[in-house]
Fold Coenzyme PQQ synthesis protein B.
Amino acid sequence: MHIHVLGSGAGGGFPQWNCNCENCKGVRAGTIKASTRTQSSIAVSADGINWILFNASPDIKKQLDDFPAFQPARLVRDTAISAIVITDAQIDHVTGLLTLREHNKPWEIYCTDAVKDDLTTGFPVFNILGYFRGINHHEIATDQSIFTIPTAAGIEFTAVPLLSNAPPYSPRRDKPLPGDNIGMHIKDTRTGKSLFYAPGLGVAEPHVLEYMRNADCILVDGTVWTDDEMSKEGISNKRASEMGHLDQSSDGGIMSILNAMEKPRKILIHINNTNPILNEDSSQRATLNKAGIEVAYDGMDIIL
Ligand code: MLT
Ligand code: MN
Ligand code: ZN
């Protein structure tokens, strides 16, 4: 299967429009070695023709423009995106649905009932799409049962409920239920290879670690290097953990978790603009390089 990273940044992207942290200032001025990043999204394809979009970021227009495979031009109005999977109801993962409103038929959208609840109430994007061609909602169960998508023959999907956080407009903010956040185990039955994708991971529960350990490739939460990174910079009064993100550098952080795994190729995604690993000359990036942990970039292609 083909995996294309559309956006490797966290909410706000890199640089963030109003941010003057060292990274954002540096990438704008060209004084640090770093690439700009759009907000978190990937696409997966069994055949290189039909693509399943994972999350729809506010930057989707640029992401589509930058990836010609998404516009096969078979009809006067066309797209190669055949279905959309949503892993949570956060702004950086769903706002792009509004940009996709001109679709010529209802969108096939796969998400849990918890996510659907937020997207029909607190942030009613699904209701708004109802004024255009609407959506066909396919419920993703949270019991780790395998599901398939008709336009991705040969690929098996498993939603892995995990602990992160529900969005600020959710009644379940700070008390998320299974289904508010999922990781996705994506297996190509033809090659036997699998990807585990979790752009938000707050707690590494045993069942999540099991999926990670057995995957051929992991694309996992790379939001922050340290839990207090945003509060230290005076950017937010919240710690990353309160937002549902596990840091990379602490004991029990993402790096120590990944270091204990043998099999998978390890790649960080959903990188916040404050994270020092964005600077390719930083000591933190050197530490990752030494550990064999990669940092996803916009346009990255993975074949499994
Ligand atoms: C998150 O990942 O925690 C959210 O996307 C943060 C945000 O952009 O509001
Ligand atoms: Mn996010
Ligand atoms: Zn910044």
Summary: The chain has one domain: 2-299.
